[in-house]
Amino acid sequence: MKFNTDEIASVIQREIEQFSDQVDVREVGTVLEVGDGIARVYGLSGVMAGEMVEFPGGIIGLAFNLEENSVGVIILGDYLKIKEGDEVKSVGQLLSVPVGDAVIGRVVDALGNPIDGMGPIETTERLPVETLAAGVAARQPVGEPLQTGIKAVDAMTPIGRGQRELIIGDRKTGKTAIAIDAILNQKDSGVKCFYVAVGQKDSSVAGVVEILRKHGAMEYTTVIVSGASSPAPMQYIAPYSGTAMAEYFMNKGEHALIVYDDLSKQAVAYRELSLLMRRPPGREAYPGDVFYCHSRLLERSSKLSDELGGGSLTSLPIIETLEGEVSAYIPTNVISITDGQIYLQPDLFFAGIRPAMNAGISVSRVGGAAQIKAMKKVAGGLRLDLAAFRELEAFAQLGTELDAATQLQLDRGYRMVELLKQPQYAPMDVVDQVLSIFAGSQGYLDKIPVSEVRQWETDFLDLMHRSHEDVISSIREKSEIDGDTEAKIRQILSDFNTQYMRAAEATAASA
């Protein structure tokens, strides 16, 4: 048998060129037991908390519990493919997700993998899922409005860029609808939106994506899905993944809005993991650090200082209550972390008042700083007036005789409640909101029947856009109503009311 020396020489030459003197040192462990989305691993003595580990088949896990003789790992994937005795390798990295413009308009899972059938996400940039929130020196006070397009919210519980405003209420009271309207209203505002669905039905999420697509909002929105069928580790990690994607834009000096729908289900997933890991249960069987689980997430929403680019991340966490129990463990935790709450009441919702916002309990701790001057002027006392109206309404039901001033307050209250009603997926421009609320609060609706208030509003705003674009432009440019503009608006309202009443009388006479 003859050897070809040239061939042997070329092989040796290639091996020498490719030779690396670096030894691949990697810590390896063994799976002791696996089930319910967690694994107990022996041998990874040097692994760090939150570090990624790799199971056979490329399944990723996260070091969750560091114990004396073993490591508790939460499995971010199909744990049914892992068995006892499998080898586990430490990766030496923290869990990260793809970020950048490539994720905008996509539907992804909790690890940033696309699930919308539109191909891979083309980006080289990744950010760790868990990062430290900006410190006090790196922030600035919230003072720039983030318009939701919902009259009741923008007037009474305004939201500023960098704020955390909780949406809380029982199931089926319109919590998601408020968040979706806020996303729809960001069109042409340059705000990137992120919707994190945790523990939701896949059909519900598909409906939300369809609405966003139909209204052209998917052009600036990313949907992160960890549905009801996803394992608990994925539901736990999804809000952090969404925040990392949103933080990328905040750090670039841009503005982002993130909706967590909802954090109650994330807390339940975290409780499940903690109990499986044998962590001691506390109140309502939640682990002691469930507060930290939410605080380290929500503290990442902020308005950065001008030195850091002045970017912002605004968050709208959603919490579901049971039977209106606001004083339960998770609701009280999240209320104490956020900068205000929008409380939705089932009684109001079923009475047809939508959004079903309870003006007495709902609050924004940023207040007028997050409103344009025009809105602050017209809606200053609206929340207190509505809260007082609710008390009067309860008193009036007793059938007692009311004096003229009280009756006037009641009548105006009924009209303001009607005026603040708004159909779903129809966010309203802030100048239109200002004009409507000005008309109602200044008594121009007092003689209009309650049933005709919404038609009156539509006709009035049509008139303003048709014939008085100069007034609208003035409010938009100055962000306030000066003396001349106010006089003009009052004159327009008086003339419009006269014509409206004449038309109503003519219609009644012909009927």
Task: Pick out its properties.
511 residues; alpha/beta; Rossmann fold; Lysin; six-stranded antiparallel barrel; 16 strands
Tell me the CATH architecture of the largest domain.
3-Layer(aba) Sandwich
The helix content, as a percent range, equals 25-40%
**Poorly predicted spans:** none
End-to-end separation in angstroms reads: 114 Å
Main sheet, how many strands, which sense, barrel? 8 strands, mixed
Overall mean pLDDT stands at: 93
Number of domains: 3
Look at the structure and give the CATH class of the largest domain.
Alpha Beta
CATH fold category name of the largest domain: Rossmann fold
Find the count of extended strands (DSSP E, 2+ residues): 16
Report the sheet-strand fraction: 15-25%
- Spatial shape: elongated
Q: Superfamily at the CATH H level of the largest domain?
A: P-loop containing nucleotide triphosphate hydrolases
Which structural class should the secondary elements be placed in?
alpha/beta
Rg calc: 28 Å
Instruction: Quickly count the helices.
Output: 16
Largest sheet strand order: 8-12-11-13-14-10-15-16
